[in-house]
């Protein structure tokens, strides 16, 4: 019998001679099965030591199976079975603790929309659903979230998110994510720039249209550090300068100037310390954008602003103190960053389509499975709990001490 082990992270394959037994129940049926005695440190199902099994449990949530196979020497079929069994076990038996500030954000993977639910401050996910429809999300929140523990709920203004906030998290402070609100005005600004470019092209001023097209990334950038001169870096780029490059364009096109500086006023609205200070900037924003407030995009933006005014202004009430004493307002920024990491983790797995495995990779890549996420060792028990604090204890030390993690039900027997 070949046994796989991984002492000190070096893969080792042992050839062990053991007795084989014939199943007495199957004997005489023509389909008798045989089995070998396992030994004290060999996994009951897989031909590997317990410490290698625990190493694999943690590795398959963080690395592609092909890389784990290369590192450990364990056959691909065995790794697939371990990964699938672990994914199903965690899906059915493990729940994360509810964060104080809950966030929801959609992510598109392989052409399909998924919903990620997690801690708004850290971005660490606690739930992953293969839909963005309101009804299944509400059902998941009902079964997996302690609603009384949620102090703040932040999400974009998608109808599914607002429905979940109203019907399941009505006691919490519900906040519209500021970056999604700003993004809606970004679309207004983009349309204004595009319409000006089209007008210039139709009037034969193609060079001016090309200049405006090259400047569009700089005009759209919310972060000044991301301002750049050219859309495509085929030609040598020079440093973008607001006074030299953009101001002459804005002076030439007053409506475009109003749309651009209106975005500045709206950003100052969100960066204000209190709602009273923010309203000064919002009034300036409305006055500046009044000449094109009749356009379809601006009408839709103002309508959204009015309809969700309470959720938008709750942003100024959402400040909470986090680790280190810092005060932070609720946004989905951390969730957005995690969504980018989710795309990377799934892309290097060559587009895994099994939802149970996708969910395991999304939710447990941050945790040490077998250490922080504890799997009950009780006979026939598939419970899982955690995360728990403290450094993980190697399996050989636990075995020598006779200590095996158990859930509360198994420990009470």
UniProtKB/TrEMBL annotation:
One Pfam family named in its UniProt record: DDE_Tnp_ISL3
Residues annotated as domain Transposase IS204/IS1001/IS1096/IS1165 DDE: 126-359
Protein name as catalogued: Transposase
């Amino acid at each position: 019998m070949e046994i796989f082990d991984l002492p000190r992270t070096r893969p080792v394959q042992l050839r062990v001679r053991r007795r084989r037994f014939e199943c007495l129940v199957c004997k005489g049926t023509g389909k008798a099965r045989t089995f070998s005695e396992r030994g004290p440190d060999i996994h009951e199902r897989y031909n590997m030591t317990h410490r290698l099994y625990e190493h694999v449990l943690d590795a398959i949530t963080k690395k592609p199976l092909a890389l784990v196979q290369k590192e450990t020497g364990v056959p691909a079929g065995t790794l697939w079975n371990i990964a699938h069994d672990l994914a199903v076990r965690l899906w059915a038996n493990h729940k994360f603790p509810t964060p104080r500030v809950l966030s929801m954000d959609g992510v598109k993977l392989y052409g399909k929309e998924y919903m990620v639910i997690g801690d708004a401050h850290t971005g660490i996910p606690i739930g992953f659903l293969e839909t963005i429809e309101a009804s299944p999300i509400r059902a998941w929140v009902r079964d997996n979230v302690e609603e009384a523990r949620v102090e703040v709920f932040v999400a974009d203004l998608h109808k599914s998110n607002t429905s979940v906030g109203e019907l399941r998290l009505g006691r919490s402070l519900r906040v519209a994510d500021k970056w999604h609100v700003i993004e809606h005005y970004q679309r207004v600004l983009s349309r204004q720039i595009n319409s000006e470019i089209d007008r210039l092209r139709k009037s034969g001023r193609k060079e001016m249209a090309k200049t405006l097209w090259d400047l569009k990334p700089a005009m759209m950038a919310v972060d000044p550090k991301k301002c750049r001169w050219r859309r495509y870096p085929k030609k040598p780029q020079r440093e973008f300068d607001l006074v030299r490059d953009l101001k002459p364009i804005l002076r030439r096109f007053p409506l475009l100037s109003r749309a651009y500086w209106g975005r500045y006023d709206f950003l100052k609205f969100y960066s204000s310390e209190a709602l009273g200070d923010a309203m000064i900037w919002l009034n300036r924003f409305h006055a500046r954008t009044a000449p094109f407030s009749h356009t379809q995009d601006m009408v839709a933006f103002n309508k959204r602003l009015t309809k969700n005014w309470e959720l938008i202004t709750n942003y100024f009430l959402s400040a909470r103190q986090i680790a280190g004493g810092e005060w932070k307002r609720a946004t989905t920024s951390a969730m957005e960053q995690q969504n980018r990491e989710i795309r990377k983790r799934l892309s290097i797995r060559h587009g895994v389509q099994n939802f149970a495995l996708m969910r395991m990779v999304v939710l447990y890549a941050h945790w040490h499975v077998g250490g922080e996420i504890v799997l009950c060792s009780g006979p026939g028990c598939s419970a899982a709990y955690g995360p728990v604090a403290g450094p993980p204890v190697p399996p050989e030390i636990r075995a020598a001490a006779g200590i095996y993690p158990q859930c509360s039900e198994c420990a009470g027997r």
